[in-house]
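Structure tokens please, single chain.
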Amino acid sequence: MTYDVEITGYGSGGEGVARLPGGKAVFVPGAVRGDMLEVRITKEKSRSARAEMARILMPSQYRIEPDCPVYPRCGGCNFRHVTYEEELWAKLRRVNDALQRIGGLSVRANEILSTGQTGGYRNKAVIRSDGVSRGFYASRSHDIVPIDHCLLLKADINAALKQIPSSYKTAHCSCRMGHRGADIGFALNAGSNEQRGHDADITLCSGRYGLDGPLEEELDGLVFEMSGFFQVNTKAALLLYQKARQYAAMSANETLVDLYCGVGSLTLFIGRDAASALGVELNPGAVEAARRNACRNGFSHIEFIAADAADWEYTTEIPDCTVADCVVVDPPRGGLSPGAVQKIVSLSPHRIVYVSCDPATLARDLQSLKGYTVKDACAVDMFPRTANVECCCLLEKTHEGRYY
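Here you go.
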């Protein structure tokens, strides 16, 4: 069955959204706000439906010709068929919709920060080979789309892509670039397709190009070892970190606690303004890298412990610290655990800075942080041409515990 619809917005995956007769929402991949379309229903549920474009009756003013020959078969991008200005509108709208509908908040993100660079920004990629082709996974699939050049990747990673033999089945290449070189490892999965796992990965070869030490990145004069999680868009990460530092507003007599701190990049970026800072991270390897990063940058007042964000106590790491003036959190996509929410509230900080890669879980957690008011919010386009968007929020303690 087909319907004529007008696309009025976007879903969380970048799909166009319209209303069917009767008001049911329908999600249409590849559609653009303002498109007049004939669509064919492919899947229907009680409250929503998915459809494919049967015909474009009238194209949107925001629709453009994709600049990538494998788009949209490759699952890496979602917005190559719209203007970049429209993409930014969609992402800011997504953040504010989540704050309103899920979080029940009236506060709005008034801006989305962007470097303006929509290509050549990714410092990391995992490239696959199935014995026939090398490239990236197709959208919603483990089928490989052959790719020789990705518009999102830095030039050196694209060069590495061409060196990967496509004849090795279930092989993958992990590539990461720093500010003075690249670390490229090539591995073959020895198990069957059904038995894939880290234990079956056998390193065949690796390369360290331009490196005489660990892979590093530089942000605002600070140098970080990239041995664990690190933002894939360095220039956009700087915009995000600057906003988080502004929100934290640390003074020289205050204490910072950073939960889910990873290799400590945000802890150090903000903690340099504080009297003392503590980073908490579950991964012991990342904690060791964070300690090396603190030493590398000359910060003796910043410490790190390996612990769960919900289950740790102050010890001798920061002997003068009994309360946190500011807590920074940058959790995984799933957001804060209930225990982490309880821990943050028990610390009773004056300010909370919440960095998030998922507006929905961010909004949910903001509602859970009782006793705090959301004072400001900002979106950051960390992943241009994809549907993903980064957020940063400032919360302040309030006795009434009300949100506005």
